[in-house]
Design a protein that fits this description.
The protein has 129 residues and is mainly alpha-helical. The chain has six helices and two strands. It is elongated.
Length: 129
């Protein structure tokens, strides 16, 4: 059975995953170069090993170097993280999560955002998603 990625990530781990999703394939040196206020090269290698142990990253050998890749596509990773969030904080209730999101971000939603959300709700009622 394939190992499911462990969901909890530190700030640095999230930054590294963002780099991996943007670039697709990276070396530890490239990750270090792209990180804000980067730690040492050995710290980056340690973080990549930890991400590999958690199931988020895999590596391929290219000559004398390791090239790192995400194990899941970004969309699958988003869905997995969101499912974990729903189960952990909202008792699996999408309605509770959406109500909370609307409560904390209503002032930031544009009329276009609200129109899109209304359209998604209409589609969900029709069984479209």
């Amino acid at each position: 059975m394939k190992k499911q990625p462990h969901v909890h990530l530190s700030r640095r781990e999230r930054q590294i995953m963002d780099i991996l999703y943007r670039r697709g394939r990276v070396t530890a040196a490239e990750v270090r170069e792209a990180l804000p206020d980067p730690p040492s090269y050995s710290a980056v290698r340690a973080l990549l090993r930890l991400l590999e142990e958690k199931g988020h990253v895999r590596h391929e050998e290219e000559g004398l170097r390791y090239v790192f890749l995400p194990t899941l596509g970004r969309e699958k990773a988003k869905r997995s993280a969101l499912k974990h969030l729903l189960e952990t904080f909202f008792e699996g209730s999408a309605e509770q999560a959406v109500a909370t999101l609307l409560d904390v971000s209503v002032s930031k939603l544009s009329p276009e955002d609200l129109d899109r959300l209304s359209r998604l709700i209409r589609e969900a009622r029709k069984g479209g998603r």
